[in-house]
Amino acid sequence: MGKRIGGRLFSAEVEGMPEYPIEFGGMFFTNEQKNVWGLIGELAKDQKWASRLGKRWVDWKPRYHYLRGKRLVNADFSDPTKTIPYDLRSDETCLDPTELLVSKINCQFPGLKKALWPYHPKPRQETALYLRKPWKGRPLHEWGFWNFLNEISSNEAYELMLIAIGCSSGLRNSNAFDAIWSLLHDAQSQYYYQLNSGYQQLPECLLEAAEENPNVKRQTEHEVSRIEARGQSMLVHFEGRREPVEAEQVILALPRRALERVEFSGVFPKSFKDEDLAAVISVPASKLFLGYKQAWWREDIAKENVLPKADVAASYTDLPIRQIYYYGKAEAGEPGLLLASYADDAAESFWKGLRPPVDNGEARFPDLSSAAGPDAFASEAMVQTAIRQLGLMHPEFVVTNPAGANFVDWGDEPYGAAWHAWKAYRESWKDSKRMRRPNSKLPVFMCGEAYATLQGWVEGAINTAELVLQEGFGLPRADWLPATYELTIEE
């Protein structure tokens, strides 16, 4: 639809602070995500892309929390002398929120720590089979994750984990099997990384590499409106274009909402949109970035114990801004970048209420980055609301007006979601395989994060693309993938 390449990978350079690009979409990858890691390394072998694909370890420092009007550092959760503003049971104290969640899961599935991945170097498929067994009389995939946690946690512990772990949507009522699987995946990752020039460089360099083949042609700003079968070929119709394009094979690397916008004529059964596409929850999320000529959180070196210098430091709160990320190691008086609100779940709707339509004449705040595009604007009301909430969280600092701001809401069209999660009662290990080729008699393939085993990560999207190339086109396994790396946990 637009000229930009990358979808929900969207990076924009900040004037005066190019070493920390704005990441409107995906931000990080881990050392355990072997497909992303290997693909970056493969492309970086060519000097044309090496500098653009340079990566840095994200030096995470202890974050703090602002919960129910009280500020806490991570160490407070394990300190029995500290007061946590939640009425926890005796078996729920002295653990930070992530440790609390992991310990509750391990108590229900003791076989994990005894002999299975991620605690032992065993095939992941063994863990998947173990978790597919019944729990309290029902298969785990028939439980919503919130329902599951309600059985094993006090409500106060649930409320603490919901806010203090990060993205609240991860603890809502998606499929319990897949939610636990994702948590186990995250728990085994030791190091997080960023691309120095922004995550969007990965799809851009990948496309440039593909275009070195003269048969590859880039066509942007063409929205697919309809796909129909004509014998063994497919006709692809585009919005505003008279004649369709005939194709021998079609690969749709699209999320749920984009697929819902396409009409399929004689390609899939009528139930495809209502049942198959609807097998996943669309999770909305928004981001508000503020840029400062002088980073106010660095105005006093004596406050280093509050906000330690790091590539990225983070704080979580039950205020609607929810997650705050402080970028860079700026000294006092130097520029700074702040992800002032990373809001998902109900908090995403809070910021929608402060963002007027583009053409209503309400004051827009100056852009932080000219590369952000016309739709990534922040309103004056949005910025001032964020400043008030930041002031509550940082009473020892004077929170000043930023020089610029930008905002993106991934719940908007045409994306419809920031990421996706399998619904309860879905057997994702079967659904994800079927969705790569919903009609085995026609050459229409699908890949992407939405129907992946590992949702919410670029790794999941690339894994599905690799499987489509192997299964649908007979291509060999990518050279950069370790022999023991499992692309899927399907049967």
Strand arrangement across the biggest beta sheet: 6-5-17-18-19-16-20
Q: Measured on Cα atoms, how large is the radius of gyration?
A: 23 Å
Number of helices: 16
Report strand %.
15-25%
Can you give the mean pLDDT? 92
Shape: globular
> How many E-type strands?
22
The portion of residues assigned to helices is 25-40%
Terminal CA distance: 36 Å
Mind describing the biggest β-sheet?
7 strands, mixed
Structural class: alpha+beta
- Low-pLDDT regions: none
Describe it for me?
With 491 residues, this protein is an alpha+beta fold. Among the domains are: 64-190; 285-409, Polyamine Oxidase, Chain A, domain 2, CATH 3.90.660.10. Helices cover 29% and strands 19% of the residues. It has helices spanning 34-44, 47-50, 74-77, 97-108, 111-115, 124-131, 145-152, 155-164, 176-187, 201-210, 256-260, 271-276, 346-352, 380-393, 428-435, 458-473, and strands at 11-12, 22-23, 29-30, 55-57, 64-67, 70-73, 134-135, 138-139, 192-195, 224-230, 233-238, 245-247, 250-252, 263-265, 280-283, 285-292, 312-317, 323-327, 336-344, 404-409, 419-422, 444-446. A seven-stranded mixed β-sheet has the order 6-5-17-18-19-16-20, with helices on both faces. Strands 12-11-10-14 form a four-stranded mixed β-sheet, with no helix packed on it. Helix 4 (97-108) crosses helix 8 (155-164). The two termini are 36 Å apart. The mean pLDDT is 92.
